[in-house]
Amino acid sequence: MRRAYVFRLRPTARQHVALAACVDAHRELYNAALQERRDAWSHPSKTRISYGDQSAQLSEMRAVRPDQAVWSFSSQQATLRRLNKAFAGFFRRVKAANAGVKPGYPRFRGASRFDSVQWPKDGDGARWLPEAQRVYLQGIGQVKVHVHRQVTGRVKTIQIKRQGRRWMLVLSCDDVPTNPLPVTGRHAGIDVGIVSFATTSDGEHFDNPRWARAAADQLAAAQQRLQRARRAGKNRAAKRETVAARHRKIANQRKDFHHKQARELAARYDLIVVEDLKIANMLRRAKPVADPANPGQYLPNGARAKSGLNRSISDAGWGQFVSILRAKAEEAGRAWIEVDPRHTSDGCECCGHAARENRVTQAEFACRRCGHTAAADEHAARNILRAGLAHHAQAA
Fold first, then answer.
1. pTM recorded for the entire structure
2. Within 43-137, where are the H helices?
3. Less CB within 10 Å around the terminal CB: N or C of the chain?
4. How far apart are CA 274 and CA 16, in angstroms?
5. CA nearest 49: which of 36, 31, 63, 67?
């Protein structure tokens, strides 16, 4: 099992400067490699440059650029692979452009859009030193790490990330042992929502904290101060960092909430069933509706309401919660099933009749065929559990 451990670095003043220089050097390499690919493609011969071609040039580049030779060769290769991955995603999206996906050509990275460097192997330019609670990074030295939990498994990759004025260490570990929890004999289907963040098939509701909505006023004020700041002014960078810090605090609160709820659910149930939601599709903007009677005019399409719903879905963070819950279920040795979300909300648990009209309101379910009524979220959670148990029986 693979797991990632995130720790805060405690660099000295000199190391703080060196970490920033390391990130800037790798950003320069990334942008230079991107420019080389652009120039090669714009040439009449339409020459294509691969990762192998650019990786082979690293030794020559390091010989003429002592400032680049300070850093690890393997970390520079990882940066080139990062660019290659961006191009692979671009070409994949080009093939899917007919499905409404924008290709998005790889862009040059400014100082605020490149904040991490990775070493692909422990011991090659970077080494994790658990006894000393430090990490050695080539060109930087041994940096103190605030280790708040034990690292288990075999360290595979080492990464540093800049978060505002802080530096974080990310250790990706393989062969992490599981920690099975006692058997409880209980199963649960979990329905995620907006009014209640999550509802179990047992009828338990988890309130939605709505972190972004609670901090909306402070965030809006910080964004307004940033908007009024003069570009290239002395205070603009500080105001930008304030906005980023507001967003970061909201994200940290949301993640902490997700971890706590996921830990509680994984400890309580032997089998956990969730919906396989396509959240990216749910967050798409409302399509414009042309008015056939007035060419060039459009009918109301509920775009304002859809935008509000999209903000609420993003604030809840369903995708992150499901990922965290899956990881904790695997670590605890729990069974995990994802089911098709079709008709889990509007299908009757008694007679099986599925129709949009069965959802009288967002909170109430009433079957039009048999008259069965129930709380909508609890009813959906029971349907999810039933589908998961059927899938589990077939697999067995």
1. 0.89
2. 51-56, 58-64, 66-69, 73-95
3. C
4. 43
5. 36
